[in-house]
Design a protein that fits this description.
binds D-galactaro-1,5-lactone, 8 helices, 7 strands, Rossmann fold, alpha/beta, about 270 residues, binds 1,4-dihydronicotinamide adenine dinucleotide
């Protein structure tokens, strides 16, 4: 049972895949859910506000943050891409968001980081919150920057952030790699709720997956967040093994945790 923890929560990236999945679920966490994206969104329902804004526009970001007590930040470039859009959305955009949070007194942020901060670790390694980042591209690098930016705003301004290194959050795992990285939408909501409600969050790094038997992530340093996944990729395992070929162990996409991202580049 989710309880209302904040009067108004801002959800960025609301037109995206995870934004749509959280839109209905996060309404239980607040009186008013403010939805924002650069793209058009469905009209506001009861208990919702819709604000179309580009993260790179500092003034628009300030207006969209004003009046909110917490931010769930999903907006931005979500895959490997050329530098310029990543720079505008994930670097400049994140700076604008934290500046607005500071100015308007927002004290808690849930930041959608990514497993791609750690993509150059191997699939036979286990990483935790203290393992040094090894981004697998410009996208992962921008998320590593975001985690450090959040740390500055915690140390200097007291804004608490959960940097959630989301694995692969889709309706179902799509391939063998996602048996390790998958997180259901309901577990994503459980994790975001835990980040919004744990009494003391600080600057925390937590891996976002369901309770999968194959796992490359150790969340023992984030136990204070109180996240308990209830779903698992295990129920999809047999079907995925049946419909996908044996992995080529010399393929970088099979060697590294980042999968195909390690083979995608624009520079
Ligand atoms: P998505 O690409 O479907 O959604 C991202 C949204 O951000 C889009 O609606 C897009 O219009 C918006 N956006 C992009 N640039 C913007 C800008 N400059 N200003 C305002 N809005 C902008 O991605 P998805 O899958 O929903 O992911 C949400 C977040 O979670 C992203 O930050 C992504 O990096 C992160 N994430 C997602 C994972 C997943 O498995 N879905 C895994 C790891 C991280
Ligand atoms: C991500 O960071 C992406 O946003 C998402 O689209 C997936 O590709 C995911 O990582 C993944 O690694 O499967």
């Amino acid at each position: 049972m989710t309880h209302i923890s904040h009067q108004r929560i801002l959800l960025t990236g609301a037109a995206g895949g995870l934004g749509k999945a959280l839109r209905s679920r996060l309404k239980a966490n607040c009186q008013v859910l403010r939805l924002s994206d650069r793209e058009a969104m469905d009209p506001a329902q009861a208990g919702e506000e819709v604000v179309q804004a580009d993260l790179a526009d500092a003034q628009a970001v300030s207006q969209m943050v004003a009046g909110c007590q917490a931010i769930v930040h999903l907006g931005g470039v979500s895959v490997e891409a050329p530098w310029e859009p990543i720079l505008q959305a994930n670097i400049v955009g994140l700076y604008n968001l934290y500046e607005a949070a500071r100015v308007h007194g927002v004290k808690r942020v849930v930041f959608a980081s990514s497993n791609h901060v750690m993509g150059y670790y191997k699939q036979n390694e286990v990483v935790d919150a203290l393992t040094p980042p090894r981004p697998d591209g410009l996208y992962g690098l921008s998320k590593a920057f975001g985690e450090d930016l959040a740390r500055l705003y915690f140390d200097r301004d007291g804004i608490e952030t959960a940097c959630v290194r989301i694995g692969s959050s889709f309706p179902e795992p799509k391939d063998r790699r996602m048996l390790a990285t998958w997180m259901s939408y309901d577990d994503l909501h459980r994790l975001v709720t835990a980040c919004l409600t744990t009494p003391v969050l600080g600057h925390s790094i937590i891996y976002g997956t369901s309770d999968n038997s194959t796992c490359w992530y150790d969340n023992r340093l984030a136990k204070h967040v109180g996240y308990r996944p209830q779903d698992s990729s295990d129920v999809f395992r047999d079907a995925i093994h049946t419909r996908t070929p044996e992995p080529d162990l010399t393929d970088p996409a099979v060697i590294y945790q980042g999968g195909g991202f390690v083979k995608t580049r624009f520079n």
